[in-house]
UniProtKB/TrEMBL annotation:
Domain Reverse transcriptase Ty1/copia-type, chain residue ranges per copy: 1-149
Pfam families documented for this protein: RVT_2
Protein name: Reverse transcriptase Ty1/copia-type domain-containing protein
SUPFAM superfamilies named in the record: DNA/RNA polymerases
Length: 361
């Protein structure tokens, strides 16, 4: 690195310093920090999850677990044993310079609310979303709407700027910033806007006035539903484990006529994983579109099955629900069909997974 001010060697001002260890801000620093933290946690006899390397756990004598969730240098500790939590915090404080913020109320912009009387936990981003609305001019005079994206929006590349006047207009619009802000909320606590954000994010390179109107519509929907979040409760739904739901549209993309895959997985009555994404290839029928969507959902289900097992919830198979009987029959039938011979092999792996009993469709 360059010599810092006040420590430059006379006559050698153009020389640089050779580092003996990583400093904050370097490209490799986050990786070095993680390797250091990982070494420490393993030294404390914690196991790193194979399905998420930022989740550490240890099985206690009474059969319960203690978990540590790491995100860069922020972390959450969870366990039924307060003694074990305090022990781990003491070990961390002895090894690293850390600050204990007490019971979790907020992390990464997500607000945590607990209702112990009714065994409920919720996650929301009310404060974050209020800042987003203020940033993009959604004030008290803005009219809220009840749907993430109205049916009259027919977005396509044809709405991209075609004249200099339109290009100058869109240069003044914070399109990418708005979509990025909405995308963070979508990833964390707002699965209800996944499909809408997925659509507007397709035009980040050349957005037009019509695309910007769609983004503002989503913001108006957020204004009406700013208090909405995720709710998890300990009731009879918890015993059912992870449950998946998958669907697709058909040729919904007006530019390349590709279909959209959408799925959501729930646990304890609330969504834990969701996605809305454009399929890689053009489907020739609704059955093909649903079949490809099932494949993506099953891939996520396999990962979730391993993840919840890490957390102590053993589930023999995950139920995935689909509203297409043709796609379900195609997934369960190993017989060769001339009508499906063109479908990529990568989508047929779902048949093997279902045959092994890991997923129940």
């Amino acid at each position: 690195m360059t010599q810092p001010d006040g420590f430059k060697v006379a006559g050698k001002e153009n020389w640089v310093c050779k580092l003996t260890k990583s400093l904050y801000g370097l490209k490799q620093s986050p990786r070095q920090w993680y390797k250091r933290f990982d070494q420490f946690m393993k030294g404390q006899r914690y196991t790193r999850s194979k399905f998420d390397h930022c989740v550490y756990f240890q099985k206690l004598q009474e059969g319960t677990f203690i978990y540590l969730l790491l995100y860069v240098d922020d972390m959450l500790i969870a366990s039924k044993s307060k003694v074990e939590i305090e022990r781990l915090k003491t070990q961390l404080n002895l090894e690293f310079e850390m600050k204990d913020l007490g019971k979790p109320k907020k992390i990464l912009g997500m607000e945590i609310w607990k209702d112990r009387a009714h065994d409920r936990v919720s996650l929301s981003q009310k404060q974050y979303l209020k800042k987003v609305l203020h940033q993009f001019g959604m004030n008290e005079h803005t009219k809220p709407v009840s749907t993430p994206l109205a049916s009259h929006f027919k977005l396509s590349a044809q709405l991209s700027p075609s004249t200099n006047t339109e290009r100058e207009y869109i240069l003044q619009v914070p399109y990418s910033n708005a979509v990025g802000s909405l995308m963070y909320a979508m990833v964390c606590t707002r699965p209800d806007i996944s499909q809408a954000v997925s659509i507007v994010s397709r035009y980040m390179h050349t957005p037009g006035k019509g695309h910007w109107q769609a983004v503002k519509w989503i913001l108006r929907y957020i204004k009406k539903t700013v208090d909405v979040g995720l709710l998890f409760k300990q009731d009879n739904t918890l015993g059912k484990g992870v449950i998946g739901y998958v669907d697709s549209d058909y040729a919904g993309d007006l530019d390349k006529r590709r279909s959209t895959t959408g799925y959501v997985f729930t646990l304890a009555g609330g969504p834990i994983s969701w996605k809305s994404t454009l399929q890689f290839t053009v489907a020739l029928s609704t059955t093909e579109a649903e079949y490809m969507a099932i494949t993506e959902a099953v891939k996520e289900a396999i990962w979730l099955q391993g993840m919840v097992k890490t957390l102590g919830l053993v589930q023999e198979h995950i139920n995935v629900y689909c509203d297409s009987q043709n796609a379900i029959h195609l997934s369960k039938n190993q017989v060769y069909h001339a009508r499906t011979k063109h479908i990529d092999v990568r989508f047929h792996f779902v048949r093997e997974i279902i045959d092994e009993g890991k997923i129940c469709l």
